[in-house]
Design a protein that fits this description.
It is built from 18 helices and no strands.
């Protein structure tokens, strides 16, 4: 998701990122302590409101009311997205059940592709509806901003910026659609995190076929029950060394690879191969996958995936702290476009999931693999089970690869609809 904004704002009460980091850490600790049920009230409260959702929502309130400035903080970029996210992917992929993921089968890919189709149709439907009921909303170069937003919602922030350059989107218009991106996509992600806590009930009611996921979770639980041990200091140091050592190596290779493609392959920008972040995500995931076939996999016995999940929760909080609910009122017509667009996407992917009798996990990660790509798709996947995070990464990287190309052609369609 893009996080740029052109709107001036009052200085935040807390501007020191180290203090903000401490606040976020304390907030996460308090949420999880309360979620453990120290009193009957909190037991009932967290039975309805997932702790994961609060980890996102509370930092968003901090930013909305001016306590912190999440938009200009360096906690999300580079710390959370460039360091903690790839580290989490390494640690969560170490114990990956590759056979189990492959057993998830073509249903997941079908639902994901339906999500991409829903984004394309959503842009067309929202443009046409707004042209009928609110013509001013789609007048002028609005189509350019929508094309850029489609790049984000099919791939990610790198794709959005690529489309901005292709169509020369005005900086102000781009910033306004960036706000729509964060607002609508974040609200949808929060909804998915809420639904993940009720996946079993929803799947039972819909008659979804959850056998592949259930079998995978059971194998993981059985493995942990047999091999889990109390971690020693050596275990923890080795886990940290593997995770962040690979992150450093991935960044070193990513910068070189992206630079080479940018200089020698003009076509690479269409697939985001000139974006270092894409390489960092792919390399971290592949490294973790490769290590899962080696004795390094035994680090899971000492809780590698739990440490990876801690990194993910910090990422969730840092994503949330970029959200500003008040900015939704700045351009209500663009928000209306985004809402119609997102609802169309949700309808299309819901129909696809129903046709395939797919579980809620397929629906959620298929949608977030488009809307949030590799930056947040693993977060939603991990909400169902920590070891499912790599599934979100795989779908997110597919979105990165196709986002710019599909968004470009969608932009051409919107241009024709705008009569330009």
């Amino acid at each position: 998701m893009a996080i740029a904004s052109t709107e001036p704002s009052a200085p935040a009460l807390i501007s020191n990122d180290i203090v903000v980091f401490g606040l976020i850490a304390a907030t996460l600790g308090l949420i999880f302590w309360l979620a453990s049920g120290p009193t009957p009230f909190w037991k009932k409260f967290f039975a309805w409101v997932p702790a994961l959702l609060l980890c996102y929502f509370v930092p968003a309130l901090y930013n909305t009311f001016g306590l912190i400035d999440g938009e200009n903080s360096s906690l999300y970029n580079p710390i959370a997205s460039r360091i903690l996210l790839p580290a989490a992917l390494v640690l969560l992929t170490l114990s990956i059940d590759l056979k189990g993921i492959l057993k998830l089968g073509p249903k997941l890919l079908f639902v994901f592709c339906a999500g991409t189709l829903g984004i394309v149709l959503g842009a067309i439907v929202s443009f046409q509806l707004m042209e009928w009921v609110w013509p001013a909303a789609v007048a002028g170069d609005t189509w350019k901003g929508m094309a850029a937003l489609s790049g984000s919602w099919i791939g990610g922030g790198a794709n959005m910026v690529a489309i901005r350059e292709i169509y020369q989107v005005d900086a102000t218009l781009f910033g306004q659609f960036a706000v729509v991106d964060v607002a609508i996509a974040s609200a949808w992600m929060a909804t998915l995190l809420f639904l993940a806590n009720r996946a079993a009930q929803i799947d039972a009611r819909s008659g979804a076929d959850t056998r592949a996921i259930d079998e995978m979770k059971q194998r993981i639980a059985d493995y942990e029950a047999i091999h889990a041990r109390i971690p020693t200091l050596t275990d923890l140091m080795v886990i940290v060394a593997v995770a962040f050592g690979i992150v450093g190596l991935a960044h070193a290779i990513a910068d070189t690879a992206a630079g080479w493609f940018a200089a020698n392959a003009a076509w690479s920008s269409r697939f985001s191969l000139d974006a270092p972040f894409v390489w960092v995500i792919v390399l971290s995931t592949l490294a973790g996958l490769a290590l899962s076939f080696t004795p390094v996999r035994k680090l899971e016995n000492a809780g590698a995936s739990k440490l990876g999940t801690v990194c993910l929760y910090f990422l969730i909080a840092c994503i949330g702290m970029q959200m500003d609910f008040f900015k939704l009122a700045n351009r209500p017509e663009l928000v209306a476009i985004g809402v119609i667009w997102m609802l169309t996407h949700i309808l299309v992917i819901w129909i696809a999931a129903r046709l395939m009798r797919a579980p809620l996990f397929y629906f959620a990660v298929g949608s977030q693999g488009n809307i949030g790509a590799a930056a947040s798709a693993p977060v939603v996947a991990a909400a169902f089970h920590p070891t499912l995070a790599p599934v979100g990464v795989l779908l997110g990287t597919v979105g990165y690869a196709t986002g710019t190309v599909i968004a470009y052609f969608l932009g051409q369609i919107l241009r024709m609809m705008a009569g330009q």
